[in-house]
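Exercise 7. Given the components listed, write out the predicted structure of the assembled complex. Treat all entries as one system.
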Amino acid sequence: MSLVAGGSIVENIRKLVELSRRQTSTCTMSIAGATITLVFLDDGFQSRVVPAFSNTDVALKSDSDLTVLLVSRRQNQQLDEIFDAGMQHFSGHPNETLVSSSEGLQFVLQRSPEAMSIIDLANHFAVFIIDSPHALTNLERGNPLKHILSAFFCQREFLVLHSAAVAHHGATILIAGSSGSGKSTISAACWRSGWSFLSDDTTLCARTGTVYGVYRTLKLQTDQSAQFSIKTAGDKLIGEDKTVFFVPDDISLRASPPIARVLVFPVVSRQSHPVIETIPSGEALRRLLASSLFFLPVTKSTTTVNLLAELARTLPAYRLTLGRNPLEIPEVIASVLQ
Amino acid sequence: MVKKKGEPSVWLTKASADEYNETSKTVWAGKLVSDSPPVKCYRVNSPAVTFEWMDGEVIAVHLINGHYFSFVDTAAPVFCALASGASVVEIGMAIDVLPAGAASQNQYDLELDAWIARLVEEDLVKLDDSFSADSSCPEKDKWLSSVKACKSRHLSIEKFTDIEALLALDPVHDISSAGWPSRN
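Answer.
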């Protein structure tokens, strides 16, 4: 396959693999039973990407289920040209994502920040290319490598949900909804009440019902974050719209992941108090489709719909109409766990 | 009003029913086969479309355009019967045993035709030319029994387009031998 740049993506990736073997700056982590190694071809990536993950070890080197190279586009001329050629295909929407596949590779282009992910799932290898580590936005630093990790876990037959997840007394509550529906608000309220935190955005659900969070970060509207006096790990990343919090390890739950018990679909309202109501499985599937099916292009498949339906059939589902005081939410959710 | 077996109105739209009355002989695949209408069957437009039975509700998803649909009450088993290979005549016969509603049988047949036409229009099902009239399977019989057991005659269809916009932002490109893909 000839590229606009005249080279081959496969060739370029091979060169990058060679580069990565000489690279000493790595970090290995465990997510949902998979060992993932990040290789930093620019030192600036490590401090900006690693804090979003828990169970990380910057020194450990072992056989990985997935190796991800993080590279600045300027480090490789051909990748730079590929990057430019790919970016010309955006229509200009800030959150547009394009997907393409060839020779077993999957390409995902992001507009904001401008970045490209090349995923070779057959060879357990992925490359994340961005202008420079400094180009990562606060939100990207909160959920780094989302496209690569979603594609990887989809292949491992996990259901990748656009969902928050919290745990209380050994039961996981999946909180699914589109952006702005209140997932993070509920997560923060539950965190504030001493519940365990798994995820506020990207959740992995195994067929066994076991739930894993990918990131130990939580994003709240900056003007909303003051009402949650929560102890965070490290500095917050304060943005104009949203602030990214790093959840401490004693709150963030990874070691013994619990089983999903209920599905909750939040609805923002102006009513005084939160109300939780049961909904039929069909409505639960429709709400899961709306929130998760097109969360990422790699999830567009019949299998994903089957898995979402299985989840909706298995778990009791509730519509949670949010009230004015989010701190009342945990008690309302706890009432359906009894 | 009880409809007799073999009456064409089950599968014909009103316009085609008029046409049928004028020309009672049927040409099928270029041959004159009988004076009965051809058995019309449809299949789900997979892999673009997938559907799930959810405790009395069918959710069908069009994975290309992002539209998804809800079928409840009688529409749910009728959709499953259609998907399992039941012909329109068989479905019409199953509905036939329902207690008479407010609508007349002919009106009801037109409603079924219109409902199926809407499924075709939404690209959820396609006419299946490979259907064998003698084919029988437990799955089809199960859904036809479910149709017979329905208390309501109304065939509903609810369409949801809220993920269409998200999908439009995630176009899928194909790599060509010329290099990086052209815009679709």
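Discussion: Helices of chain B lie at 14-22, 75-83, 88-96, 105-121, 138-149, 164-168. The radius of gyration of chain B is 19 Å.
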